Amino acid sequence: MVLRINKDHQRFRKIVKGKIRDDLRKFLTRSELLGREGKKYISIPVKGIDLPRFQYGDNSDAGVGAGEGKPGDQAQVDGEGIGPGGDQEGRHILEVEVSLEELADILGEELQLPRIKPKGKHRITSERDRYSGIRQTGPESLRHFRRTFRRALRRQIMSGLYDPDNPRIIFERCDKVYRSWKTVLSPQSNAVIIYMMDVSGSMGAEQKELVRLEAFWIDAWLRRNYQGIESRYIVHDVRASEVDRETFFHIREDGGTRISSAFRLARQLIEAHYPPEEWNVYLFHFSDGDNSSESDSRECCNLLREHLLPAVNMFGYCQVASAYGSGNFINVLHEHLSDEPLVVTSRVNTKDDIYDSIKAFFLAGR
Q1: Phi, psi (degrees; rounded to nearest 5) at 259
Q2: Residues 64-113: pLDDT tens digits?
C-alpha cells in the first residue's frame, strides 16, 4: 500500500519536473549549476512552488491591527514604511535536488531526442556480489568469526560464565552473525566521448563558458543512454595535447590555431584504444572557427573523411562566436563535407543557442 506521504512526494516531484520543463531553455544556460554539480544530484532553483505548511491560530484575528474592526476603519500604523508599496507578486524560489538522470530525461523529452542504441559486446553489464553488511542468519561458510567471538565473549562475561583461568568460549545460536551481500551491476564502458577545444588567443573566458555548458549537457545526455562511458579531453592551439577534465574547462593559453593537430591526436586515441566495431565513439570539437590557414582546414576535412568518420558515431562541431576569430572553419566543413551525414555543425553565439545546438547534435539519435 502506498502511503499518503509517498503520493504527496510523487505529486510534488511531478510539479518540480513541470517547472523545470517550462524553463528548460533558461536552466541550460545557468552556469551556477556546474559549480553545484555533485556526484549524482544537482540543486535546482525553482520559482513558483509554495511548500505546504501548518499555520496555528484560533481564527479570531479579525479587525485592523489589534482588536475588532469594521469595514471602512482606517488602519493605524506606527512609523513609516520603506519605499512605496508594490503591486506585483513575489517570486517564491525553492531549491530542490534533482538527479542528473532526471535532468537528462527532461532534456530528452523536451527536445524530443531519440534513445541511442549502443553497439558491440561492451554493452553487456556484468554482475558481482559485494559483501556490504551483517545479518543474523546465513550459511556457516559466511560466518563472521571475529564478531561472533566478541558477542559470545560479551555474553559469557555478562552472565558470569567466563573463567579467566580457563578461557573457553562456547558459541550459542544467538552469538552467530554472518556476512550479507548484495548483487551489484558492474557496467562496462561501451561509449567514449572525445572533446576537443581550441584554446588559442581568440578563445576568451566567455567562449570557454559556452563550451563548458554545452559539454556538460552533452555529457549528461550520453551518460543517460549508456550504462558506462569514458570521456577524453584534448586542447589545442598550434599543438594538441590530452588533459584531464579540470584542465580542459579551466586552462588559459595563447597563441595561434592549427585544428588538424587535435584531429590527429583524436585519431591516435581511437586507433589505440577504441576499435569502432566495439565502441560508440563521439567526437565534439569546439572552436571560434579561426584556423591558421585554408590548407590546414582542408587537411582537417581529409582527416575526417578518410580516418575519423569511418570510426565514429558522429562528429559534432560547435562554433562559438568570438570578436577575434574569422569564423570560417564551419564554412569549410559545409563546403567539403556536406554529403557526410555523420558531420553535424551548430553555431552558439549566446547561451540561448545551447538548447538548439544540443537538439541539432542528437536529433538523429546517432
Answers
A1: -65, -30
A2: 555 566 666 665 555 555 555 555 555 555 566 666 677 777 777 776 66
How many Å separate Cα 21 from the centre of its chain? 17
Per residue, what are the HEC states of the chain? CCCHHHHHHHHHHHHHHHHHHHCHHHHCCCCHHHHCCCCCEEEEEEECCCCCCCCCCCCCCCCCCCCCCCCCCCCCCCCCCCCCCCCCCCCCEEEEEEEHHHHHHHHHHHHCCCCCCCCCHHHCEEEEEEEEEEECCCCHHHECHHHHHHHHHHHHHHHCCCCCCCCCCCCCHHHCCEEEEEEEEEECCCEEEEEEEECCCCCCHHHHHHHHHHHHHHHHHHHHHCCCCEEEEEEECCCEEEECHHHHHHCCCCCCCCHHHHHHHHHHHHHHHCCCCCCEEEEEEEECCCCCCHHHHHHHHHHHHHHHHHHCCEEEEEEECCCCCCCCHHHHHHHHCCCCCCEEEEEECCHHHHHHHHHHHHCCCC
- Fold for domain 189-362? Rossmann fold (3.40.50)
Question: Hey, what's the cell of 165?
Answer: 583461568
Spatial separation of the C-alpha atoms in residues 88 and 83, rounded to whole Å: 14
Q: What does the mean pLDDT of the chain come to?
A: 76
Q: Which of 109, 114, 106 is nearest to 17 (CA)?
A: 106
Query: What are the boundaries of each domain within the chain?
Result: 1-51+92-112, 125-185, 189-362
Q: Is the dihedral of CA 296, 298, 301, 303 positive or negative?
A: negative
**Given this model, what pLDDT does residue 312 score?**
93
